[in-house]
Write a structure and sequence with these properties.
heterodimer, A: 563 residues, mainly beta, 6-stranded antiparallel beta barrel, 4% helix, globular, B: mainly alpha, 29% helix
Chain lengths: 563, 219
């Protein structure tokens, strides 16, 4: 019995990794698991050139698991096989670790000369081919910053954009909505489009961006029919890590500040070494509606963006945009942006659109007005909970009037406004559930109102892959008050996701005759998402709506593919 | 030029654009490669100095532009940034490219890589409306419950662009909530009684519900 125990101890001693002797210093050499062989152990990216020897101890630190120790059982020049010791799980590929080497272990002295470099190869054989047993020639391309002994790709000069071949990346979409209202098919539509970037199309390193779509709408703004909408047809040059200056021309959403809207013109952007950016643009602004007609409004813009560091935790931006309508001075807009995005702290972001009325303000005096504002204070916590407080201010909301039907009065323009303050709260429950609430208050030129909605999300309530969400909501809106409940069941499965939503609400219209001032509204929606082929997503839906004894429905699809 | 008189050339442009879509898709598939395939024309865009010295971990031996079939890169584990939806299928170079350090753009949120097509008017919490699989926005009817104009009755089936003319170019700004803003034609066509002649151009809710115009009753 004693002899067996002794034998076992001896075997354990042999199997144990060789730790540096007590009192001897340890040098830790970082390594990484490059392959796993369940029968033998793992392979690491360190070898004899790193002074690793058989028997050396290795410590692995898998993410989310206890450290694992191992022992080197075989060594090559650049790799070593490590046998895991004990009951720890096999560390997966990519796991970082350290080889423990005795401090005193030295590299063997070179046989000749003072520098430890690989031996200079013999002359290549006939025809330049390497003969058997001969070492490859020394790599001597000093221009690339390569030094003998380094991995080949270290310090290699990346190809510049102009040196690359042309390629196309982007996406396409095909969308259809069939909407059956009470008496007609109004609101049905079809859209077919693509947004793509053609990289280096002309050999200068630039990118050609296109974004367009055809749509057929049965009725929009009194006109039926097809339309071509070109959102982008622009050529970008520079603006990469190799070129601090960027230049774009054509039709595009302004690159530096999208808040300055679309442009038929040109924009220049410069990035400083400290990360600040500034730029200027000039051109015509397409009218931001479905026609996107251009040529009426010309703009000039200048902007500067300051960053606190390359991490861009705090970013302050100011822009000035001067607009001319049919050649006459029209709008002086100052745009201010703040973005404070620290990690694990409160975040603040805000956009302000400030209009200067230099000579045509109230009573002909210069004045200043904040015409649009969006301010947000938010916080996300590690446990999945968070909050967001947003204030939105808007004057001159979009008014679509025809001159000879309902003209807009000057007083209406002066009075029109819409301000909203909303608070969102959400928290993650145990079991992957989620509780959320949204509370909002609004005020416009005539009324005051608000809304509240609370919801609870239950994960795996009906099946392992399902999420069920129950929401209750109420609102005091313009011309109506409402109370409702919504049940939304979503199922995620291999190759197919589907969901079913049912929404029931009660509406009350205070200003309508008593016999018709109440309405019950039902809405049911069934959706399915599938991947018809690689890189494509297909969304299908059907919706039925029942209100006031009227039944309407919609069917539709949304196909998007990436290329 | 208004949309009404664009007919003839718009149809030709239909064909042209459809052709462009096909060409773009086909040519894109030919040259862009598949997931995780390294395209030789790009060259080593990424600095490799922090990569494992064993090149065969990622590359096949005879063609450097092809990654080994067993190549897996756990983005969440290695970088702390999980890739979901379309991001998980995107070519590495869509993000790791000439623009500069990805971490710098990622710190800005979605807007770091995606241009803000809403032009700053809708904030930066993109995932409130968008998922990561497609650009399709979800829950718009539900979102309207939190505004001054919940979608009731006939408005439930109305396309966004009908009330938000800038919707097709990403511009969703508040609109005047009065009925006549969107119902110009209905107002023009209302001849019994003649609404315009009688000056009935406002406060439609006194007679009409949001379910059907024909249900109007004079109070």
């Amino acid at each position: 019995m004693r002899s067996r125990a002794g034998l076992l101890l001896a075997l354990l001693a042999l199997a144990a990794p060789r730790l540096p002797a007590q009192g001897e210093g340890v040098r830790r050499v970082a390594c990484r698991v490059t392959a796993v062989d369940p029968g033998k152990g793992v392979l690491i990216d360190r070898g004899t050139r790193d002074l690793v020897k058989e028997g050396d101890a290795v410590e692995f630190r898998p993410r989310g698991a206890a450290p694992v120790t191992g022992r080197v059982t075989a060594v090559t020049d650049r790799s070593a096989t490590v046998e895991v010791v004990g009951v720890g799980a096999m560390p997966p590929t990519g796991t970082r670790g350290e080889v423990l080497l005795p401090e005193g272990r030295k590299a063997p002295a070179p046989e000749a000369g003072g520098e430890a470099v690989p031996p200079v190869p013999d002359k290549p054989g006939p025809g330049g081919e390497e003969g058997p047993g001969r070492t490859p020639p020394t790599f001597r391309n000093q221009d690339e910053g390569f030094r003998q002994g380094q991995p080949l790709l270290v310090g290699m000069r990346p190809r510049r954009p102009a040196e690359r071949a042309t390629r196309v990346v982007g996406r396409g979409w095909f969308i259809g909505d069939l909407v059956k209202d009470q008496d007609d098919w109004d609101n049905s539509l079809v859209r077919l489009g693509s947004a793509a970037t053609i990289e280096n199309p002309f050999g200068h390193g630039g990118n050609l961006g296109v974004d367009f779509e055809f749509n057929y709408k049965t009725e929009t703004n009194l006109v039926r029919g097809t339309d071509l909408l070109v959102r982008e047809l622009a050529y970008d040059m520079g603006g990469t890590r190799f070129d601090a200056d960027g230049f774009v021309f054509g039709r595009f959403l302004q690159r530096g500040l999208p808040e300055l809207q679309y442009l038929d013109g040109a924009e220049w952007i410069h990035r400083t070494e400290g990360g600040d950016r500034y730029g200027a643009s000039a051109g015509f602004m397409p009218v931001p509606d479905e026609d996107f007609d251009t040529g009426d409004d010309f703009q000039l813009a200048l902007w500067y963006e300051w960053v606190d560091s390359l991490e861009e935790e705090l970013v302050l931006t100011a822009a000035y945009q001067k607009t001319f309508h049919h050649g006459n001075a029209d709008r002086d807009l100052l745009l201010a942006k703040v973005r404070y995005l620290p990690r694990d702290a409160w975040r603040f972001q805000g956009n302000l659109w400030v209009d200067f009325y230099l000579a045509n303000g109230d009573a002909g005096k210069p004045s200043v007005e904040v015409t649009e504002a969006w301010l947000s204070l938010s916080r996300d916590w590690d446990d999945g909970s968070g909050t967001d407080l947003t204030f939105r201010h808007s004057v001159l909301p979009y008014m679509q009037r025809f001159e000879f039907v309902v003209p807009i009065t000057f007083q209406e323009l002066l009075d029109s406004r819409y301000d909203v303050l909303s608070l969102d709260l959400w928290s993650a429950d145990q079991g992957d559930g989620r509780t959320r609430g949204t509370f909002a208050a609004w005020i416009d030129e005539d009324d005051v109102g608000g809304s509240a909605e609370v919801g609870e999300e239950f994960a795996r309530l009906l099946s392992v892959y399902s999420t069920t969400e129950l929401s209750l909501y109420g609102n005091v809106a313009k011309g109506s008050n409402g109370l409702g409940a919504r049940l939304w069941h979503r199922v995620t499965g291999p190759g197919l996701n589907w969901s079913l939503l049912y929404d029931f609400s009660y509406r009350h219209f205070p200003s309508i005759a008593d016999d018709r001032d109440d309405l019950l509204q039902h809405r049911a929606r069934l959706t399915g998402d599938l991947d018809p082929w690689g890189g494509a997503d297909l969304h299908l839906y059907g919706e039925a709506r029942l209100y006031d004894e009227e039944l309407t429905w919609s069917l539709g699809f949304y196909l998007q593919w990436r290329f | 030029m208004t949309r009404a008189n664009r007919g003839p050339w718009v149809r030709r442009l239909w064909l042209l654009a459809a052709g462009l879509v096909v060409v773009a898709c086909v040519s894109g598939r030919q040259v862009s490669g598949t997931l995780h395939r390294w395209w030789a024309g790009l060259g080593p865009v990424l600095p490799h100095e922090s990569f494992p010295a064993d090149c065969s971990l990622c590359h096949v031996g005879d063609r450097w532009n092809i990654l080994v079939s067993s190549f897996r890169f756990d983005h969440a584990k290695e970088t702390g940034v999980p890739l979901e939806g379309a991001h998980a299928e995107a070519l590495c170079l869509r993000c790791h490219n000439d623009r500069g350090p990805v971490a710098q753009f990622q710190a800005r949120g979605c807007g770091g890589c995606h241009e803000d097509v809403h032009q700053g008017f809708l904030g930066t919490r993109c995932t409130e409306c968008h998922q990561q699989e497609t650009w399709r926005a979800v829950g718009m009817i539900e979102k309207h419950e939190q505004t001054r104009f919940p979608l009731i009755g006939s408005h439930l089936g109305v396309s966004c662009v009908r009330c938000h003319p800038g919707a097709l170019v990403g511009r969703y700004v508040p609109i005047d909530a009065r009925c006549s803003t969107c119902h110009q034609r209905d107002l023009q066509n209302a001849v019994n009684p003649p609404h315009l002649g009688l000056g009935w151009t406002d406060h439609c809710e006194r007679c009409h519900t949001p379910t059907k115009w024909e249900h109007g009753s004079v109070r």
